[in-house]
Every structure is written in C-alpha cells, then in structure tokens.
C-alpha cells in the first residue's frame, strides 16, 4: 500500500467503528468546502452514522444538505436544546413553571424588542459523545473559529480526521489526508466516499461537481489534470446536475486556487456553462491565514436573568 491508500484505510477504520461524529469546516468557508462537507454528510448518513454539520459562519446555500449546517456542534444525547435567533439585549428574563403535567418555559423580551417568533425556534439534543470529528478545508483547528474555541472538549481524546489541501496545513489530526496538489477538497472527499464504498447518488454527485467546478474556475486552473476529468466523468455518470447555484451567503467569495492561495472569481453563479474569455490569474503568493477573534461577548447587563417558578417543589 502507498501512503494515500494507508491513510484512506485508516479513515475507513475510524468511521466504521464510530457511531456518531461531526463534520466541521473553516470560518468563512469556500463553495468547495461547503460542497465537500455536505456531500460527506449525505454519504455518512447513508451509512447510518449519526453525524452533524457545523460552521462558525452563518452559511446559506442551495446545495443539498446545506440546511443541515449549524453554528454549534450537535452531539446527540438526552439534554434538550431550544434555540432561536438572538440579538444582544433582546431578552429581559427567562422563567419557568409547571402547570399540571406541562413544563412551561417563559421567555420575556426586553421592552422595545420584538417578541420571539415561534416559527424560528429549533430543537436539538446535546450531552452525547462524539466518536470522531472530520475537519474539512481548515489548515489549523483555530481556523474553525467558535466551533473549536467553544467546544474544545469535544476535540480532546477524539479521532480527528483532517482533510485539506492548504500548503500551510499543520497536520493536527489523528489522521491527516492532506493533498496539496489536489484541484479541490471536493475531489479529496470523493476518494473518501469511494473508500467507504458509499454509492454516489445524484445529490452527492451534484454537490461534488459544484465544489470542483468552483475551486477550479470551471476546470481551467493549473491543478486540473487527467484524474480530475476522470472524476468529473464519474460524477456525471452518477447523475450530477450541471446547474446554476446561488452564491452561498456567508461563504468566502474567493475559491482556493492550485496551491492553497486565493484567486478572484467571477461574481456570476458557479457552474455557468459556455463562459467565454475567462482570465486566469497567475500564482503569486501563499494565502495568509486569518486568526479568528473570539474575544467579543455581550456585556453582563445584556444577559437574560434566570428565575425559577414559584410553584416548584
């Protein structure tokens, strides 16, 4: 076995023995990173794994499973989490009481703020344990932003699968699948899915096609080679749809070029066909990593006050 085969075999072993995991990707993700993460999520779900998708950035995209991306790591478990959009100072107090067999949580808005919209309330569970964490397109754990800084205990003692193509990757994983010459991280994820023997269906194929297309400026970048086109052919045979996707809100407007740098992209939607006169920028410098500032927090006086209902025993 060569090094790549050994790495893929180790990834296969970790995921097969695990039950639950999280797929996380860098703050301000590229279209390629979002496409790779969502495709992997779809694949692991087909395997019966309990997995979640998380990014520190608020990402809105019409890629399949894009609606599953959350701002925190969901680990399952027995503790119910009630979440909703929140602005600093919007809540005056949180109260609860018990009436008969009903537990009532009462959230009172601060004067001058709108009441909570019930349609925006989401429910999930926490308190469970992760068996593995898959980090996509992030040269360091710190580049994950608050997903890492606020959940460091979830990374400790876990198998971390590091999937990336940055020149500056710090090889922080238990397993590091870092291919610095790959055309895209979506192409690397395709190899992972094939190793796991997951059927590449239309949705997975379409996401991966979108990621490779966006990362390579419609297959014109220097890193595109014969293997890339063979992978594209396989995705098309699996049903990949060459359609125009909306530019994901919250995603980095620049995709990675051949060697982990940033290259300006045309502002039109990705996967536009028959585009003429594309200007390919030469490689000039390695991208500079931006450290995320996690020091911003609301003032204490803005935090909701918690009260207990008077009728509790």
Automatic annotation (TrEMBL):
Family matches, as SUPFAM superfamilies: DHH phosphoesterases
Organism per entry: Candidatus Roizmanbacteria bacterium GW2011_GWA2_36_23
Listed name of the protein: Phosphoesterase RecJ domain protein
Top-rank taxon: Bacteria
Annotated Pfam families: DHH
Residue ranges constituting the DDH domain according to the UniProt record: 23-212
Lineage, broadest ranks: Bacteria, Candidatus Roizmaniibacteriota
Residue ranges of the region described as Disordered: 252-278
Gene3D superfamilies xrefs: inorganic pyrophosphatase (n-terminal core)
Positions with biased composition (Low complexity): 261-273
